[in-house]
């Protein structure tokens, strides 16, 4: 490869998304793969709340463009000397690490230990919808909530997924159902209710109403697990009421105010956070577990068990379309995942 520069979409100032300078088309240097890294030719990307949170208005100016984006599908261009199991030409998908530049660029470096071969049955755009949310959902359900990997052990157990039509919710419902759980999802609009039912929920309730009375109306009552994907503090009291004795709650959304852990004491209920970037950020001994998870997700997709959560596709990948994607995400009514594909 003789190319030394590449296209990217980045920021130098943290501005409201309606400002045309909030995300800009830029040219940056081409990186080189060394060590465990793969150099990937980016074919498609997706957006997540982490993108809008990192881009949100605040003080500070970047001397070099900051590149966001943590959902990528593409083709390996080159590999580092310590890479095993990958070679140039392989099609991969991954979320990457929040401690490194994101994937909103023509070429991108990712640690091979947190990447996997993409589902062969999906095109790049459909595959790009999955990595960050699938990892978040899988870790949340199996690692944080401690759901048994053996379906038979989960017979009769219930999980409540709050905001089941969002990006994480759309794959979490599929994973939970595959685990053998009875899945109750929350939605507040007819279109999100329909989407949720199509993606694996057995029942749907409204997260804008008290949770436990709705669960009781279904004949379910308190649930064994709760996976909170929206407004942890706003739902905290309702979750404490709805969790069964010795049940487990996991959330991916930081609190905006303190919550009372004491509400869980009488039930001996437990609470855990899920942050998908933890393994890569701290290079934990089990960092490669994310590769295994993505491999398993790809297998289940190719077997027709899981389906892509893509809901909208924009082309090409450029600042205009990424600003539109951020705008839709910040509006708070996103269903599934919005993806972008191709470079001009």
UniProtKB/TrEMBL annotation:
Keyword Transmembrane recorded: no
Gene3D superfamilies: Medium-chain alcohol dehydrogenases, catalytic domain, NAD(P)-binding Rossmann-like Domain
Cited CDD domains: AL_MDR
The entry's keywords: Metal-binding, Oxidoreductase, Zinc
Residues annotated as domain Enoyl reductase (ER): 18-340
Pfam family, one: ADH_N
Protein name, per record: Zinc-type alcohol dehydrogenase-like protein
Protein family (similarity comment): Belongs to the zinc-containing alcohol dehydrogenase family. Quinone oxidoreductase subfamily.
InterPro entries: ADH-like_N (IPR013154), ADH_Zn_typ-1 (IPR014182), ER (IPR020843), GroES-like_sf (IPR011032), Lipid_raft_assoc_Zn_ADH (IPR052585), NAD(P)-bd_dom_sf (IPR036291), Quin_OxRdtase/zeta-crystal_CS (IPR002364)
